[in-house]
């Protein structure tokens, strides 16, 4: 644990923050602009994982284990969420034989 | 805590009762569990017990909100007896998932740590994603479910990113410590903390559907099975606001000026956008969704007028709102069945001629939502306005009052259909249990409007 923390601290904190922000933005763009629901799901995962990276880096820099514990919670919840999301996609696929998000337009404001 | 554990156990029991292939025992078992939960919750009154290294604090605030949510869930389950009668499979799962969602709602009212808030929101949301897709062969239900899932997870990601940034600045997830950390800056926050707080607020606003983060709610409300919509509009909204209030009160207040202004703008936007969009709705479920957004604006007003009595006013408002909304959805279910699946406002045409008592109670519920005396809705809105004016937010209170008056128009549009002269050719068949429940809700809405009660929380 001590070694890992010091290894993480070899790289300045800013770099971790920039990397996470970049990953988060890539994920966000993917969710907004991709049309395939599976790809959207992967982009959501990318957003969650950028948060995990950020939490781990902060946790090592603050020498506080709470951040790393939170990462485990996020991983578990993300797994549960993806399980539900994939089953919803399977349900959609069975009904309309496609996973394209442009089909989701029957409910309109 | 015993209430929370018992609720989880009962959820699992109901889930396994699904193997018994006997639908009639599900609702009684689930309701028994909820009644015991109320009893166990009230037993903890005034104890202020803390669990898991202060990650959860069950105080009077959480108990009051928990009990109000359990009461509304019991109401929904009682209506569910009839609603799920024609459903052949997976009835046990419906009850069990609602109970699991309620467990998440319990966490959302009693957290004192951002980890617990996150877990509560997710435990509430994940069963709801499944419930929204309850009609597996209906593509509209699929669409509602996927939209809810997608936007819900998207909001969660923002929320988490905000938590990570706040953690990076303050090195803690514990709300009282975050409060002291924020206080030391005297309103001049470092950018990272500011962005973190903004993202957290965006995430929570998404969950309670405040404009401009409300776009998912009409679609999801329309596509989901109606009983699930009733659950979302009432219990989930209550839980969201309890969490929002607790988050602000325990950790983030006093907010830095730009963020507080943002929240006020969001309040005004929900009042305005909700009303304007509701005016041109023809679908009853969407109408109620926009009415929920408008009511969110009033709840925000009560929440942002920080005062000792804010929590009590908020509890009163959410409870009264839920008590009127659930039976309205039930009446809608009957009208929908009578008109073979239509959801337009016109299906209410001729209701008074066929079932006069039902039309009268519908009037009471709609008047309560619109905030007209002598119903409880009037008293709820009145208390919100008294609170906000006494705190000096005069301009926005006047704006909210004007919006409340505009709201009367579209509620009475529905009533005009119900009391119109034309005959409704389709017979409405309503079970005795549900008629009794609608009467009880109507009488409760009237009685709650007669005297002021406030819970010391």
Characterize the structure shown.
The complex is a heterodimer of chains A (109) and B (457). Chain A is mainly α and 109 residues long. Chain A contains four helices and no strands. Chain B is an all-alpha fold and 457 residues long. Chain B has a domain of 202 residues. Helix content of chain B is 74%, strand content 1%. Chain B has 18 helices and two strands. At the A-B interface, helix 2, helix 3 and helix 4 of A face helix 5, helix 6 and helix 9 of B.
Quaternary status = heterodimer
What is the first-to-last residue Cα distance of chain A? 53 Å
Helical segment tally of chain B? 18
Can you name the CATH architecture of chain A?
Answer: Orthogonal Bundle
H/E element order of chain B:
HHEEHHHHHHHHHHHHHHHH
Q: What are the low-pLDDT stretches of chain A, counting only 5+ consecutive residues below 50?
A: none
Number of domains of chain A: 1
The CATH topology of chain A turns out to be Helix Hairpins
Sheet of most strands of chain A = none
What is the CATH class designation of chain A? Mainly Alpha
Shape of chain A: elongated
In short:
The complex is a heterodimer of chains A (109) and B (457). With 109 residues, chain A is mainly alpha-helical. In chain A, 78% of the residues lie in helices and 0% in strands.
What is the fold's blueprint, element by element?
The complex is a heterodimer of chains A (109) and B (457).
Chain A (H helix, E strand, L loop, with lengths): L1 H7 L4 H21 L3 H26 L3 H31 L13
Chain B lengths: L1 H16 L8 H18 L5 E3 L4 E3 L1 H24 L7 H20 L3 H19 L6 H32 L4 H9 L7 H18 L7 H8 L2 H27 L4 H23 L4 H21 L5 H29 L12 H4 L1 H15 L5 H15 L3 H25 L13 H17 L9
Antiparallel strand pairs in B: 1-2
Helix pairs in contact in B: 1-2, 1-4, 2-3, 3-4, 3-10, 3-13, 4-5, 4-10, 5-6, 5-10, 6-8, 6-9, 7-10, 8-10, 9-10, 9-12, 10-12, 10-13, 11-12, 11-17, 12-13, 12-16, 12-17, 13-15, 13-16, 13-18, 15-17, 15-18, 16-17
